[in-house]
Amino acid sequence: MSNPTTFQLPAIDARALGKTAVLMGGRSAEREISLMSGNGVLAALQAEGVDAQAFDPAQRDLSDLKREGFARVFIALHGRHGEDGTVQGALELMGLPYTGSGVMASAIAMDKTMTKRVWLAEQLPTPRWVWLSAQDQSRERLRTVPDELGLPLIVKPPREGSSIGITKVMGYSNMAEAVQLATGHDADVLCEQFIDGDEVTCPVIGHGATARALPVVRIVAPEGKYDYQNKYFTDDTSYLCPSGLPPDEEREIQRLVVAAYRALGCRGWGRADLMIRASDRQPYLLEMNTSPGMTGHSLVPMSARAAGISYQQLCLYLLSTAALDGQA
């Protein structure tokens, strides 16, 4: 697959897009980040001449969107009740086109376990895992997980984002505490094989056969700890774009990411996170974000800039792709 370093986006008439709501905030654990993303998108769209207004579903009823005559919606919500298909379903019922993936793809991608099952069926590489239901978390069961996956391993809530509730488990004695932290965010728990190597992320824009990967971003976090704090609130994490990876590695990651995006039925845009195993340079897919961050620290705008797309151009393009399921 050819991936030129620069992209030519189509010309877009901002005023023809109509009255636009930028959904931000919401009720998820990622509310604070969503407000940062949403305000950035709002300012960008307004600067491009779009009639855009902020809309926080935690403070207003979604039915106001229809009543107040909005023509389309830019979803800048993250996490539950924004990225998981629920808001998408409500917008489908109201007939309001929205950015990003539809109901099914959003719901599957929000659940890392379901995502892995789809990728496995498509023979796409993802770390081995153990899923612990709420009824399968006894101390005896937890002791068996390191035997299955090896140490260290990762414990995380399967339906949260932004590295919330994640623990790198170094020994058997850490399992109970890690599971307790994860269950503070989700009744179920995902335990995952730890892949030692480079952490990268790669955005995709478009739909179906037109989906294309943007440049890969390589993430270098302090002590390898890319957590919530280091993602959003420090300047200690380095983001390299161009990634500095060998060209063939970058192309393979882009190929994998587009395949993973299509397998889930994503549209509009998304961003896949991966690890590249140091021992053999094998990339492993971790998750797909269907409503990626758009803050000052966010990686999709950084990758877009490397492809010659400004933040404002990116926001306007994504808004122009707003659609309903079956119409993208």
Radius of gyration: 19 Å
The total number of structural domains is 3
Question: Helical content, roughly?
Answer: 25-40%
Going by CATH, what is the homologous superfamily of the largest domain?
Answer: ATP-grasp fold, B domain
Assembly type:
single chain
Q: Specify the structural class.
A: alpha+beta
Binding site for Mg(2+) 2: 287, 289
Function: Cell wall formation.
Binding site for Mg(2+) 1: 273, 287
EC number: 6.3.2.4
Give a description of the structure:
The protein has 328 residues and is α+β, with helices and mostly antiparallel strands. It has three domains: 14-99, Rossmann fold (3-Layer(aba) Sandwich), CATH 3.40.50.20; 108-125 and 196-320, 2-Layer Sandwich (D-amino Acid Aminotransferase, Chain A, domain 1), CATH 3.30.470.20; 129-193, Dna Ligase, domain 1. Helices cover 34% and strands 20% of the residues. The protein is built from eleven helices and 13 strands. The protein has helices at residues 31-47, 63-67, 86-94, 103-110, 112-121, 139-149, 175-183, 228-232, 247-264, 299-306, 311-320, and strands at residues 20-23, 52-55, 72-75, 129-132, 153-156, 167-169, 189-193, 197-207, 212-213, 217-220, 238-240, 267-277, 283-289. Strands 8, 9, 10, 11, 12 and 13 form a six-stranded antiparallel beta sheet that branches. Strands 4-7-5-6 form a four-stranded antiparallel beta sheet. A three-stranded parallel beta sheet has the order 2-1-3, with helices on one face. A hairpin with a 4-residue loop joins strand 8 (197-207) and strand 9 (212-213). Helix 1 packs across helix 11. The chain is globular and about 60 Å long. The two termini are 22 Å apart. The model has no long low-confidence stretch (mean pLDDT 93).
